[in-house]
Structure formats: C-alpha cells, structure tokens
C-alpha cells in the first residue's frame, strides 16, 4: 500500500542556518493493505517528521515515497489533491483536533462539503452513519467539543478522518492522552474500522506494550534511524540492536 525508500530530512536553524538536526536518516519500510506497522522511539527521534514526510506535509531531502506503486515523491500540490483524501493523520491531542466553535455535525460534514463529494443532506446522513460506526449516537451532532469527553472526541476525530475514505492512516499517539479504559475502547474502534475498510495504519507510540499488542510488525527508531524492524513478537522476544534491548528491558522492568 505505502512504501518509503531511503527517506532523509535535515532541519537547519540558527545563525547562518548552521544548526543541523538530521531528523530522519535513510529510512525504508512498507505497510501492506490492512496492516498496522508500529513505530516506536523516544521523544525527538524523528517519528512525527517521518510521518509528515510520508503524507507529504513536509518535503523530503532524499528518498522516495510510493503509494500503491505510484511514485508520489515529486507530486505537485495539484497532483496530491486526490491523494490527500486517502492519507489522514490522527494526532494525540483530542482537545485541539476539532474546532471549538464548530458542532460535531459541522466538523463531520465539513470535509465532505469542502471536497465537494456530496450535498449537505447526504453528508449529514454519512455523518450519522460514521458516528454509529465509532459507537456514538446522533445526539452528538449538536454538541461542541467542550460538551463531550476526550474519548468521545477522539472517536469523532476518527469518524471525521473516515469521511474521506482514506486508505492510509497515521495514528500519532492517538490514545496517549486518554485513560486506560477509554484507550482500549478507542483502539477497538480503530481495529474494527481497519478490518472493515482494509486501511494501512502507521501507529506511532512510546508504549512498547501497546504497540506489541496491536501491531503485526514494528520498527524501532533511534536518533533518526531505524535500528530494528521485524515482527512484533520477534522484537519483544529476541531484540537485536542494543537500543531495542534497552527498550525491551525497561518494559520488562516496569511489569
Ligand atoms: N520544523 C523543525 N525545525 C527544526 N527542527 C525540527 C523541526 N521539526 C522537528 N525538528 C527536530 O527534529 C527532531 C525530530 O523531531 P520529531 O518531532 O520528528 O520527533 P518525535 O520522535 O516525533 O518526538 P515526540 O515523540 O516528542 O513527538 C527533533 O530534534 C526536533 O527538535
């Protein structure tokens, strides 16, 4: 479904742009249809930069991005338009994900109207259908973000991402701001919609246990590089790289 080869991104800043941060260094992997790939690594290792490169919110310095075998690396904004709908990101902060001045109805139908995919009545119908899919009722439609819980907001955010029938979803710590029981419900919703629509997920998290539980494969990132990528079970049972061993050991100590 989506494949990256040799992706690199360096940020420069400061006096004469002399400060350089190699945020992503020569990263390659692929995610199949219906697969969830876990991306694990400490804060600042380059996870968000990598995901932004993949959906082309940031230009890569080097490397290639393929979406269903189409090389989209050098696509222009216009060429990206139809693909934008197919690649969505769900961020970790439910509170800032929705416009506080919009009701759930407005938030849900907006993408459909903006992309001129359907008229208002049909969009409203689709919004109710999607709310049902994520386990919420149509009573949500008239509420504003401050009138619903964090877990409910995250479900609306998922429903909103689904309005455009994406094929690839980046889940950037989607449950880290939620308490454990709500986290489990949101993960269940994500797994359910994935199996229904066969989407590919890139699941970004610090939580090795959660990643091992929900992802068939994982990649471990350290200082911009992928130091290990394998089946989650193999990573947990036979970590190869010293950094991965350290992570698995820390996870074992916490239990
Ligand atoms: N726009 C930017 N300009 C300069 N440096 C940046 C920029 N964006 C990210 N960086 C740097 O690139 C590195 C990787 O950042 P990134 O946000 O991708 O890490 P992360 O793994 O997602 O961290 P976290 O888990 O805390 O979100 C960091 O050193 C960060 O400071």
UniProtKB/TrEMBL annotation:
Statement: the UniProt record of this protein carries the keyword ATP-binding: yes
Superkingdom to which the source organism belongs: Bacteria
Source organism: Paenibacillus baimaensis
ABC transporter domain location: 2-248
Species classification: Bacteria, Bacillati, Bacillota, Bacilli, Bacillales
InterPro entries recorded: AAA+_ATPase, ABC_transp_ATP-bind, ABC_transporter-like_ATP-bd, ABC_transporter-like_CS, P-loop_NTPase
Family under the similarity heading: Belongs to the ABC transporter superfamily.
Any one GO MF annotation of this record: ATP binding
Keywords: ATP-binding, Nucleotide-binding, Transport
Name the record gives this protein: ATP-binding cassette domain-containing protein
PANTHER family, per database record: D,D-DIPEPTIDE TRANSPORT ATP-BINDING PROTEIN DDPF-RELATED, TRANSPORT ATP-BINDING PROTEIN
Gene3D superfamilies in UniProt: P-loop containing nucleotide triphosphate hydrolases (3.40.50.300)
């Amino acid at each position: 479904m989506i494949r990256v080869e040799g992706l690199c991104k360096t940020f420069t800043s400061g006096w004469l742009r002399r400060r350089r941060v190699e945020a992503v260094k020569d990263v390659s992997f692929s995610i199949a249809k219906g697969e969830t790939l876990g991306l694990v690594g400490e804060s600042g290792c380059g996870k968000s930069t990598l995901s932004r490169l993949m959906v082309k919110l940031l230009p890569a310095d080097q490397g290639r991005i393929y979406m269903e075998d189409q090389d989209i690396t050098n696509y222009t904004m216009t060429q990206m338009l139809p693909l934008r709908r197919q690649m969505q990101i769900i961020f970790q902060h439910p509170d800032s994900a929705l416009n506080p001045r919009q009701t759930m109805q407005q938030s849900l139908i907006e993408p459909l109207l903006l992309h001129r995919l359907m008229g208002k009545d049909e969009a409203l119908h689709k919004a109710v259908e999607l709310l049902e899919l994520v386990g919420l009722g149509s009573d949500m439609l008239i509420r504003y973000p401050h009138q619903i819980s964090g877990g409910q907001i995250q479900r609306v955010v998922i429903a909103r991402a689904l309005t455009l029938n994406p094929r690839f979803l980046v889940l950037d710590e989607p449950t880290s701001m939620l308490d454990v029981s709500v986290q489990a419900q949101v993960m269940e919703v994500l797994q359910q919609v994935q199996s229904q629509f066969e989407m590919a997920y890139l699941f970004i998290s610090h939580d090795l246990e959660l990643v091992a539980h929900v992802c068939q494969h994982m990649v471990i990132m350290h200082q911009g590089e992928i130091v290990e990528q394998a089946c989650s079970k193999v990573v947990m049972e036979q970590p190869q790289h010293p950094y991965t061993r350290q992570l698995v050991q820390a996870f074992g100590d916490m239990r």
